[in-house]
Amino acid sequence: MHFFSVILAALPLVVYGVPQRAPTTSRTVGPAPTTSNTVRPTPTPSSTIVVTPTASNSTIAPTSTAAPEPPVFEVVFRNLTAAINAPGFLTFTLVDTVADCESFCNSVEGCVFLNAFNDVNGKNTTLLTCSVYDTCHNATEATNVGGQTEPDGSVNFIRNSTAECKA
Ligand SMILES: *[C@@H]1O[C@H](CO)[C@@H](O)[C@H](O)[C@H]1NC(C)=O
Ligand SMILES: *[C@@H]1O[C@H](CO)[C@@H](O)[C@H](O)[C@H]1NC(C)=O
Ligand SMILES: *[C@@H]1O[C@H](CO)[C@@H](O)[C@H](O)[C@H]1NC(C)=O
Ligand SMILES: *[C@@H]1O[C@H](CO)[C@@H](O)[C@H](O)[C@H]1NC(C)=O
Ligand SMILES: *[C@@H]1O[C@H](CO)[C@@H](O)[C@H](O)[C@H]1NC(C)=O
């Protein structure tokens, strides 16, 4: 491959070098054989690849240690028999614990407040209803005490209602 390219590079010199009368190419006839000797060292760029490993460890190490600070939830109230009824409601889910509700809030864009409560509504469950809001509220806005008649004829009520606001 390299040998072939050397031949191609030297080929014009040979072709134009034969007629010495040619004015434009006559100057290249002399140094032509000397340049062919310097072609060999050029196709060895493998030594320059050694440079790349030096940049690998210095860039990854600082970024992996920068762990995001988890938001802090401050308890607004605990164990009320009423749920929040106020603006800023985003969505809700069912969870096992208040900690699960905190994780849910962190997964919802704009959530800064949670209200986790046990809605006793005829279904046999200890799951907590986890309602999340984009605005923090307080106990004066916990006015939902249930009172809805369920399909089984029972009337629901709220217990163990916890509220937390992101600091
Ligand atoms: C990166 O690796 C080189 C060679 O292993 C080492 O000398 C250097 O201290 C390392 N730099 C960092 C920031 O770890
Ligand atoms: C939670 O509230 C209920 C109803 O008011 C009460 O019976 C219970 O003792 C309270 N639990 C705690 C841990 O305060
Ligand atoms: C409610 O569920 C628990 C366990 O899942 C069970 O032991 C209990 O008997 C159930 N109570 C009713 C009223 O269905
Ligand atoms: C509770 O929230 C209401 C409505 O935002 C506000 O008017 C009231 O001052 C708050 N109470 C406390 C104790 O922060
Ligand atoms: C009330 O919630 C707390 C956690 O906030 C939990 O430990 C407790 O078992 C719950 N009580 C009832 C009766 O659901």
Number of domains: 2
- Hey, roughly how much beta strand do the residues contain? 25-35%
Based on CA inertia axes, which overall geometry fits?
globular
Count the DSSP helices: 4
Quick overview of this protein structure:
The chain has helices at 2-17, 32-37, 54-65, 98-107; strands spanning 73-80, 89-95, 113-120, 128-133, 146-149, 155-166. It is an alpha+beta fold and 167 residues long.
Can you describe this structure?
This protein is of the alpha+beta class. The protein has two domains: 2-52, no CATH class; 73-166, Hepatocyte Growth Factor (3-Layer(bba) Sandwich). It contains four helices and six strands, in the order αααββαββββ. It has helices spanning 2-17, 32-37, 54-65, 98-107; strands spanning 73-80, 89-95, 113-120, 128-133, 146-149, 155-166. Strands 1, 2, 3, 4, 5 and 6 form a six-stranded antiparallel beta sheet that branches. The longest helix has 16 residues, at 2-17. It is globular and about 55 Å long. The protein binds 2-acetamido-2-deoxy-beta-D-glucopyranose (5 copies). One 2-acetamido-2-deoxy-beta-D-glucopyranose binds next to strand 6.
